[in-house]
Design a protein that fits this description.
This protein is mainly alpha-helical and 101 residues long. It is 59% helix and 5% strand. The protein has a two-stranded antiparallel ribbon. Helix 1 (10-30) packs antiparallel against helix 2. It is rod-shaped, with a radius of gyration of 26 Å.
């Protein structure tokens, strides 16, 4: 099983964790069917905050998380070395290991 990629930003994660936990506790205190629903919803929101992954965001293609540190550096280096990373289109050999006279 692969770990889902984070798509929720840091502040949004904190808010989700705190609000989800509060909603779950409120639902548990009610002790009714509606309370169970609120508790389940709160747990889902808290899970979103704790893991940093939102399935709805994934479905909609939304990503509010900042890229990992150094990600831009790798992308810039990759773009800068692009022509050098292409395989040569012609080599002066007829067979492997033999040079043309």
């Amino acid at each position: 099983m692969t770990t889902p990629r984070r798509n929720v930003g840091t502040i949004e994660r904190w808010v989700s964790t705190i609000a989800g936990g509060a909603l779950a506790l409120h639902g548990l205190r009610r002790g009714s069917i509606i309370g169970a629903g609120l508790s389940s919803l709160g747990a889902a929101i808290a899970y979103r905050g704790l893991t940093g992954h939102c399935p709805l965001y994934e479905t909609l293609g939304i990503n509010t998380a900042s890229p990992p540190p150094g990600d831009e550096l790798v992308q810039d280096a990759s773009e800068a070395s692009f022509p050098a990373s292409d395989a040569p289109s012609w080599t002066p050999t007829t067979r492997v290991g033999e040079l043309k006279p």
